[in-house]
Amino acid sequence: MMFPPRDRSRSHHPRDMRGDERRAHHPDLTRLQGWKSMKAEANLPENRWDEERRWALRMGLTGADSIEDKSIPTFARGELPHYAGINTFLKAPYAEDVTEVQHYDATVLGIPFDGGTTYRPGTRFGPQGVRKISALYTPYNYELGVDLREQMTLCDAGDVFTIPANLEKSFDQISRAVSHVFSSGSFPVMIGGDHSIGFPCVRGIAECTSKKIGIVHFDRHADIQEKDLDERMHTTPWFHSTLLPNVPAKNLVQVGIGGWQVPREAVKVARERETNIITMSDMERMGVDKTAEMALEMAWDGVDMVYMSFDIDSIDCGFVPGTGWPEPGGFLPREALALASKVAAEGLCGMELVEVSPPYDTSDITALMGTRVIVDVLGSMVAAGKMGAHKKHIDKPVTIPHGEYEGNRWSNKP
């Protein structure tokens, strides 16, 4: 078929074409998300990006005379360059003084603990791995039309001081850290670490409120038996979490469960406590939208807040090899991100990302997927206007004393 030559100096957008020029199989670009997102970007502010560049020049000195871009400092500060600098999560400010987390909408906490692992250790390096590869990202998402730097505040409070080979002391430290962040009003984002941290993380939030909390848990494993190898391991967090007085078992929703790694002990507890399991085959049959709808309905039934636990091994191990219990047949990455985003859009009181094990990772792709889950959850909450919605439920905030110190650390400054 021959088409008449077009004047390439004018618009080729479908709305500007003559009727005889339009091809029936071409969609109207104005209906595509790509077109809408392109237009939406113009409405996002740039104030904090400008502020960060000025801050970088103040903290890192102005650049050499030969540098044409005068926003480039001598010492790397902030987001750029992605390959340099100190790797906090998403290059966010480091809250060395953890009493300052109250000034941020969300706070990242690393929990480098794998003492609850029953097979392949290495998740103690998960926070390092996720922070490292998170430098690859900018705070802007084209499809969501969200810029986290402009629309929320984020800090990294560093790692919780966990105690190797001591589960209970580490759990106490984790709960104390999470309760401090939650009490401040900042949204806590925990990077594990093995899945045993789920219990102390939920406990840390639950002790700061009289309100009820539901849980949406993405995983291939049920993780709800009472003990494993005679301890509270990474297979047991939801047994103990749902014993807390304000965390009802009926509001625990586990999505993606299945395969050959679900112990019968866990199934018995789930049946006795009447928790909710949506298997991978259920999700495949119903689709992402219906699965998210059902999970939200059950998790939110009669509660005030919902907590998200995302185990990276819920995703098919072909995409995330760096984990302690790899299992084929899990989510595709697009499915996992869509489900997490839809659950987050209704609002969360906290989230954890667990079981990233860098020693088993390939090209940082598992850590990258973990990073993506976190930023998609934050972006979805921002887009839905739900960031900070948990604050009204903090009716029993804790106060943790800090030590006394005057002076400057490792400095000759008087």
From TrEMBL:
The keyword ATP-binding does not apply. One of its GO terms (molecular function) is agmatinase activity. It comes from the Bacteria. Residues 1-27 are annotated as: Disordered. InterPro entries: Ureohydrolase, Ureohydrolase_dom_sf. GO terms for biological process: putrescine biosynthetic process from arginine, via agmatine. Keywords: Hydrolase, Metal-binding. PANTHER family: ARGINASE/AGMATINASE, GUANIDINO ACID HYDROLASE, MITOCHONDRIAL. Belongs to the arginase family. This is SpeB, Arginase/agmatinase/formimionoglutamate hydrolase, arginase family protein. The lineage of its organism: Bacteria, Pseudomonadati, Pseudomonadota, Alphaproteobacteria, Rhodobacterales.
